[in-house]
Amino acid sequence: MQTHTPTTPFGRRTMSLGMMASQAVAKTVPEGAQVQKWQVFHTIREARDLIGATDRALAILNALLSFHPETELSGDGELIVWPSNEQLMARANGMPATTLRRHLAVLVDCGLIIRRDSPNGKRFARKGRGGQVEQAYGFDLAPIVARAEEFEELADAVRAEKNAFRLAKERLTLLRRDVVKLIETGIEENVPGNWGRVQQTYQAIVGRLPRSAPRQLIEDICCDLHGLYTEILEVLESFAKTQNPDANESHSGRHIQNSNPDSISESEEGSRKENEAGGGAAENDNLRSLPKRELPLGIVLDACPDVKDLVPGGEIRHWRDFLAAAEVARPLLGVSPSAWREACEAMGEVQAAITLAAILQRSDQINSAGGYLRSLTDKAREGKFSTWPMVMALLRAKLDAGKRAELSGDRGELATSDASDSAPGKLEVSEALLRSLKKPSGGRG
């Protein structure tokens, strides 16, 4: 007797045009078409985001494929499996029944399987006398065979996107490293240029990068960074070509953001004469003698260990942790939001945070932290303030305390002194830092 293949679901489940489209695709399976079921499952798993399948839905699909006795799915073979919900739940690692039904619906909506429901909704197979299946009611796997090539194309697209994303992230990392180190080179080698503005440009570019960024945004940021990198590289290469190794004085080359290189020495000479006439030459010379690079986070934390107490766990690994600690320190010191905002505008957020950490370290010696910060902010606007002297003074005091402790040998007295609360018994610093500490401190805030 001729049997009828059902196309609509049992019970209250409604029929949709998407289900009809999936059934139409299933009818297009070429004769003799065969696919390895676990290979095509791996392909579906790779392309699941484009297909619309979930992890739980794929776990159920894996269980359904395990009920098919053959390792290959053939277009001219039996592609309907009829496991009960209890059997599916067992092979899906004990998935709850409600979750099972919800994700079976996801597989149907994605066009990965087709429901072939019996008149009473039960799943079973009717076999003939020879044991062959005459009629089966369950889940039809024919769409997997019919769409195998489509799944492979989708998986290739996902692989290509992942590879492009990986390359974009690699390029971003390399560009960030090159730009930062080239800026440091320009500052340390005294290459003429407005390096502060270059650093601000770099921070503005990378500041657009969220924690989780799409590939297109990463590529846009890479384009901006590459333009900045090219400009810096041209300046450094041009300056290097103008250098005479036998001369004592270096000649100025191309100037960043200055179209007239010959005017550099004249403007510097003019400003020097004006400063000397105004009586501020000594202070400005002290500021110019300070290192041009940014203070390393490790040195700041050695000089201002009290700021570590303001973060959970007492550990600061990145500048963002340091900035978060500064936000906590501000109200504790009684610094108003307006004073803090003005300090960040005049010094920059990181430098203002370092200043606040130094004030916190010396809070027992400062009557009004807010007034002191405003005074330093005014000096920063005039270009007469740097955080280097503050940090070096704290390190010098720490170093002197350590030396006195070694000479006296009195560990009990060391444990009760205020200086020893934040200093280890023996302070190890680099030779470059020791040379900096021996210099006369100038331009203190």
From TrEMBL:
Stored Pfam families: RP-C, RP-C_C
All residue ranges annotated as the Plasmid replication protein C N-terminal domain in the record: 13-186
Domain of life: Bacteria
Residue ranges with Polar residues bias: 255-264
Alphabetized CDD domains for the sequence: HTH_ARSR
Disordered, as annotated region: 244-287, 407-427
Membrane-traversing stretches: none
Residues in Plasmid replication protein C C-terminal domain copies: 296-396
NCBIfam families for the chain: PRK13824.1, RepABC_RepC
Protein's UniProt name: Plasmid replication protein RepC
Originating species: Neoaquamicrobium sediminum
Taxonomic lineage: Bacteria, Pseudomonadati, Pseudomonadota, Alphaproteobacteria, Hyphomicrobiales
